[in-house]
Design goal:
The structure holds 3 protein chains of 3 kinds. By secondary structure, chain B is α+β, with helices and mostly antiparallel strands. Helix content of chain B is about 30%, strand content about 15%. The longest helix of chain B is centred in the last third of the chain and has 15 residues, at about 105-115. Chain C is α+β, with helices and mostly antiparallel strands. Chain C has 3 domains: about 15-130 and about 195-275, Alpha-Beta Complex (Aldehyde Oxidoreductase, domain 3), CATH 3.90.1170.50; about 290-455 and about 610-760, Aldehyde oxidase/xanthine dehydrogenase, molybdopterin binding domain (Aldehyde Oxidoreductase, domain 4), CATH 3.30.365; about 460-605, 2-Layer Sandwich (Aldehyde Oxidoreductase, domain 4), CATH 3.30.365.
């Protein structure tokens, strides 16, 4: 039996917000694949729950008239893999999503939970970062939007205020149309693992030159990070080996990998440099294929 | 924290009074479905996998209350009248069973796989990818892959032309 | 013929339907759960403990501390009892302790109505410690000022040395070349899917019944008796289906405690079940070794001597520590038996979880050292790795330098030829240029192994079996040997059917061992069951057959010499097509004829006094991605001489499983210790990297069947050997691909990074 102190089941977003407001210690639980693990370890911080597992309105992917993709936070990774909107427009998200845990976990774990747990290693984080995703939060004071990179505040910390639920992630048409992207998860195993380093790259090439480049990394700092300096340097460069060398040499200046028992800093740096180059090469290749 | 849930387990309707703090694994085991094994309790081994509405989940990381109204399948229900399912028989033929502790969970993943991909020509890579949520420490997985291949073979529509 | 056929395993249907019952699948009304209070420091003493609040918590039946347990020290290693006082296991445990020797040591235990109450009660126990310096690094452990982890030990469990086959110094003098190397192996954990679990109750006020996931029910019974100062007649151990053990359940870990608890609590049933996180520190692990090797060769590249100096770390308690490193050394000697063999070993304590038996018992560590050094030797002569092993490897007729007995059957060279062919060695060698450049390179590797069949002459090898003819003409087979997933029940049933002339379906194996019922056998370890227990089964089956024929003779008036059993019928020996009556007819008559007969049973016990060695090799083809520090296995084969194969499907399964475990230890797995605190970082299945189905390539297994004359069916051991030789083969392939010799395990990306960086490759 899990060490749960209080439990409230919500059937709608509004009900969830109300329950969270009434129970300030409570946290929302969707798939449970993180929270129930913490409860297995008797972690008291997770013992008051508002259950949003069955809130159907969070479980869809839509595309608005202007092309904005709206991903319900309660979408499971398996659900994303089956979504034609995701598959056809932003397959990079499924490259991240399909690397989460194993199939049984992906059948229940949600993209909202993967982001809201604030893990520096979240497998959907770097694809969403390079898609410039925006987070939509709904709370007692209404709705607010903020870029995903601002939502992350520190290891295990996100800017979800009391009473708020992350309702969806939004991706604007200008952030995926004409872009190509690729994601690679480097872990100690090929499944059921947390990333040692996760890397996503997105690029837009016009007339052989970089019109846009985004690099997102996980486990390369206290939160998932974008590589702003490198991205800026790349702007306008030719889509060639010179660009790849620049990225390889520059990327560490944007990141803050650290030593831990899981992996040493110098090892992570080696992987970061190698992945930056290889992942971007794949993303560029896809851009060529698109044309 | 006591609630009542009504589900179907292996085609039989059940109504159970449960504590909301209980995992589905715990509830199933308490009610005699001991094919559901606990190897880790945190979704890292897959020994507790069951099908919920024909989708495999780790029942140790799934609150029992979430199964309310669902159709649950466990390894016990896959054999009927003493006859093994094709997946179960293939596991025996291919040497996919040793200590047997991971077996019921893996049988459920294979069952979902075989039902979902029947008629397709599947690669070993695909079989691997969709069985990756299980740890087996005895077989090296080779027998398990062979068992799934044995199940897929008779239904393959698109036989490669060069063989 | 039943032997040699791929009959379906006897426990197969029960396992695929989930109906096989394991320890946790049994429950009793009123059963309580027990939970340990584990220390939060790795070295020191408990100076104060207060359990009053925990005891007062509703739902708590009892709280016991080190103050409450018998003042009786006992050994946990699951060896047979030894009459030689110098060969006893090391007694260094109490049921609970105030002397903390690793982080997680058992200092108190709570019994309560459920897990939540037990956990809550644990949080209410007040403990204060006096801390000593955690001894984790070897230099600290062996320092003169080090606190003794066990009083009087000097932190050394045992030192041992021997030279076999000649005068070491003289041979060294004669050698043309001396290759030196140093190789380190890591802490590996068994990770059987079923955690350790046991429960106990009293069936009356004198007798304790223990149901446990154990490989060694009869030995467990003795050790419970020793720990609780009880005669074994008052103890009954039952082993139901078990979800893997790999040696970790050849140690008596929970049984004495559950017996103690039920005894304390008036016989109520108490279950003690470790969760995964606890089990990974609180049971046993594989000993890490640090081995220095010298290989001496003459100018033709003939191996003349192998000289070891091996250090093994046993952790907090001795368990099997005193025997593993020397067992590993003795068993690996058979790989190159024509060389002089010298071995110095030392096993030391440390403030980390206790190491014990694990599949192949010291051989994987020793073989890693030898087969790495042999690779250096071959390369120093510019010899092909395969040719070198063909030249120096064991052959039938070679004599063991240790036992002085000849090796009767040895399929090593044929195994090497077979492996070479399977992996296409020569063609790939020719195609891949010797000096590769680029970020991604290919490599080929080989390593050989040898292993024993049982523990003789180090330990006694008793095995027993009983056969009972049923009224329907079938027979129940009872053995004290334990099925733990390896398929022994099936192999033993095949042998019984073969000898009796029964069809396989007519043998019912009583799979659960029960020390009140099943005859004595020391259990499942040392790959002994097919070889050792098989001989008891054969003798029992011969007896039963003689008795059946004798009764058939009484019925028919035919001389029992003239008849035999074929296909469940009594037939004329000279013309087996003529059936005179069925075995069922004989059984019915024996049971129910008013004037003659009775139940026909047979029982035999047999102590094997042989130990034939098995041989084989691993061949591997890999790709190394240098910048990503990653090894990909393209092809891998294990070839085994295990004598005649009793069941090809289960045998192949043993090889596949061993290969995957070997690959895990080679590339992925390591239990990681914080050197400052002795804390284990990764005691769970997420952070401890057991390979998943994605990480294990297609596996190839092949057998070279020799006919071992000391076994009635020509069989030798198979359970453990498949795990031994993957790590050195892969390491040699990495060397082949990159020129970098990786001399420590696991060869995970983190380790490879370190070596590639030092070599200037990245």
């Amino acid at each position: 039996m899990f060490d749960i102190n209080s439990y409230h089941k919500a059937n709608s977003v509004d009900e969830a917000i109300a329950l969270l407001s009434q129970n300030p210690d409570a946290i929302p639980m969707a798939g449970g694949t993180d929270i129930l693990v913490r409860l297995h370890g008797h972690n008291k911080k997770f013992s008051h729950l508002v259950d949003i597992h069955n809130v159907i309105e969070l479980q869809n992917v839509t595309i608005e008239n202007d092309g904005t993709i709206v991903i319900g936070s309660g979408m499971t990774f398996t659900g994303l893999a089956h979504s034609s909107v995701i598959r056809e427009n932003i397959p990079v998200l499924n490259e991240g999503g399909s690397s989460v845990g194993g199939p049984q976990v992906r059948n229940v774990a949600t993209v909202g939970g993967n982001i809201c747990n604030g893990a520096p290693s979240g497998d959907s984080a770097s694809p969403l970062l390079v898609l410039n995703a925006t987070v939509e939060l709904k709370g007692p004071d209404g709705v607010r939007h903020l870029p995903l990179y601002e939502f992350y505040q520190g290891p295990g910390q996100v800017d979800r205020k009391d009473g708020e639920i992350m309702t969806c992630l939004r991706i604007a048409p200008g952030d995926y149309k004409g872009w190509s992207a690729y994601y690679y998860k480097y872990a100690m195993r090929e499944a059921m693992d947390i990333a040692t380093i996760g890397c996503a790259a997105a690029c837009k090439v016009e007339n052989g030159k970089i019109a846009g480049l985004r690099l997102g990394f996980t486990v390369a700092g206290p939160t998932p990070l974008r590589c702003w300096r490198t991205e800026e340097k790349a702007s306008g460069m030719g889509a060639n080996e010179e660009l790849l060398d620049m990225v390889e040499n520059s990327v560490l200046s944007d990141l803050r990998p650290r030593d831990s028992w899981r992996a040493a800093k110098d090892f992570r740096e080696q992987i970061i440099k190698t992945l930056a180059k290889r992942v971007l090469r794949e993303a560029l290749k896809r851009n060529t294929e698109m044309e | 924290m006591i609630r009542t849930i009504s589900s179907t387990v292996n085609s039989k309707p059940v109504t159970w009074r449960i504590d909301v703090r209980m995992s589905l694994a715990e509830v199933l085991r308490t009610n005699g479905f001991t094919s559901v094994k606990e190897g880790c309790g945190v979704g890292e081994c897959g020994a507790c996998a069951v099908l919920i509405d024909d989708v495999t989940v780790d029942s140790c990381l799934f609150l029992a209350i979430w199964a309310d109204g669902c159709n649950i399948r466990t390894a016990e229900g896959e054999s009927r009248g003493g006859e093994l399912s094709e997946v179960q028989q293939a596991y025996l033929d291919s040497g996919a069973v040793q200590c047997g502790f991971c077996t019921p969970g893996l049988v459920m993943s294979s069952t979902e796989f075989v039902e979902k991909h029947r008629g397709e020509k599947v690669s070993r890579e695909k079989i691997r990818k969709e069985h990756a949520g299980h740890i087996c420490r005895c077989t090296g997985y080779e027998g398990i892959i062979r068992a799934v291949e044995q199940c897929m073979k008779p239904y393959e529509k698109h036989k490669s032309t060069d063989s | 013929m039943v032997v040699g056929k791929a009959v379906q395993r006897v426990d197969g249907v029960a396992k695929v339907t989930g109906k096989a019952r394991y320890t946790d699948d049994f429950t009793m009304p009123g059963m309580r759960v027990a939970k340990y209070l584990r220390s939060t420091i790795s070295h020191g003493r408990v100076t104060f403990i207060d359990t009053s609040q925990a005891k007062a918590l509703p739902g708590v039946d009892g709280v016991f501390t080190f103050q409450d347990v018998p003042k009786r020290i006992y050994a946990t290693a699951g060896h047979p009892f030894s009459l030689d006082p110098h060969h006893m296991d090391v007694a260094d445990r109490y049921l609970l302790t105030d002397h903390v020797r690793y982080m997680g040591d058992e200092i108190a235990i709570v019994v309560a109505v459920n897990d939540l109450v037990a956990t809550k009660a644990l949080s209410l126990i007040d403990v204060e410690y006096e801390s000593y310096q955690p001894l984790v690094e070897v230099s600290d452990i062996l320092s003169k000022d080090a606190v003794e982890i066990h009083k009087g030990s000097g932190n050394i469990v045992k030192s041992h040395s021997f030279v076999a086959g000649g005068d070491l110094d003289a041979v060294k003098e004669e050698c043309d070349r001396l290759i030196k190397g140093r190789y380190k192996t890591q802490i590996v954990q068994h990770c059987h899917l079923e955690n350790h679990t046991a429960y106990a109750y009293m069936d009356d006020l004198d007798r304790i019944v223990i149901v446990s996931s154990t490989q060694i029910p009869h030995i467990a019974r003795r050790i419970v008796g020793e720990a609780l100062e009880m005669d074994v007649g008052f103890i009954r151990v039952i082993k139901p289906a078990i979800g893997g053990g790999f040696g970790n359940k050849q140690d008596v870990i929970l049984e004495p405690m559950v017996a103690f608890l039920t005894k304390k609590l008036d016989g109520i049933p108490v279950r003690l079940k470790l969760d995964r996180e606890e089990g990974m520190i609180g049971t046993r692990v594989r000993h890490p070794f640090d081995v220095k090797v010298q290989v001496g060769l003459d100018r033709e590249g003939t191996v003349k001597l192998i000289d070891f100096d091996a250090l093994s770390i046993t952790g907090a308690y001795a368990s099997h520590g005193h025997s593993i490193v020397s067992a590993g050394a003795a068993k690996t000697h058979y790989m190159y038996p024509r060389a002089v063999y010298s071995c110095k070993t030392k096993t030391i304590y440390s403030n980390i979880p206790a190491a014990g038996a694990m599949r192949a018992y010291g051989s994987p560590q020793m073989t890693f050292a030898i087969e790495c050094a042999m690779e250096e030797a071959a390369r120093s002569f510019g010899m092909d790795s395969v040719e070198f092993r063909l030249k120096n490897g064991a052959r039938a007729g070679d004599k063991s330098q240790i036992t002085k007995k000849p090796i009767m059957t040895c399929g090593l060279l044929d195994s090497i030829y077979k492996g070479k062919e399977l992996i296409n060695w020569d063609k790939k060698r020719a195609a891949w240029s010797a000096e590769q450049t680029g970020q991604v390179r290919n490599g080929l590797g080989v390593a050989i192994f040898s292993y024993g069949s049982g523990t003789y002459p180090v330990c006694v090898e008793p095995a027993s079996a009983r056969l009972i003819l049923n009224q329907d003409g079938s027979a129940h087979l009872q053995v004290g040997a334990t099925e733990i997933g390896q398929g022994s029940d099936t192999a033993l049933a095949q042998m019984a059917a073969e000898t009796l002339g029964f069809t396989f379906e007519k043998i019912h194996v009583v799979s659960a061992q029960d020390t009140d019922v099943t005859p004595f056998d020391t259990g499942s370890y040392a790959s002994r069951q097919t070889y050792v227990t098989g001989q008891a089964v054969m003798r029992t089956a011969e007896q039963l057959k003689t008795k059946i024929l004798a009764h058939a003779s009484v019925i028919t008036g035919l001389d029992s010499e003239l008849i035999t059993i074929v296909g469940d019928d009594i037939v004329i020996a000279e013309d087996p097509k003529i059936a005179v009556l069925s075995v069922r007819d004989v059984a019915i008559d024996a049971y129910y004829n008013k004037e003659r007969g009775g139940q026909i049973t047979a029982e035999a016990t047999y102590k094997v006094r042989n130990n034939p060695h098995v041989f084989g090799c691993t061949f591997v083809d890999i790709t190394v991605d240098i910048p990503l520090c990653r090894v990909k296995i393209n092809e891998i084969y294990n070839v085994h001489d295990s004598g005649i194969i009793i069941n090809p499907v289960t045998a192949e399964g043993q090889v596949h499983g061993g290969m995957a475990m070997g690959i895990g230890a080679a590339l992925f797995e390591e239990l990681m210790v914080d050197p400052d605190s002795g804390k284990i970082y990764n005691n769970n299945l997420l952070d401890y990297k057991v390979p998943t189905i994605m990480d294990i390539p297609d596996l190839g297994a092949a057998f070279i069947e020799t006919n071992e004359p000391t076994h009635p069916y020509g069989s030798k051991s198979l359970g453990e050997p498949p795990i031994i030789s993957q790590a050195p083969a892969i390491r040699n392939a990495i060397l082949d691909a990159t020129g970098v010799a990786i001399n420590e395990l696991p060869m995970s990306p983190k380790t490879i990074f370190k070596y590639f960086k030092n070599a200037g490759l990245i």
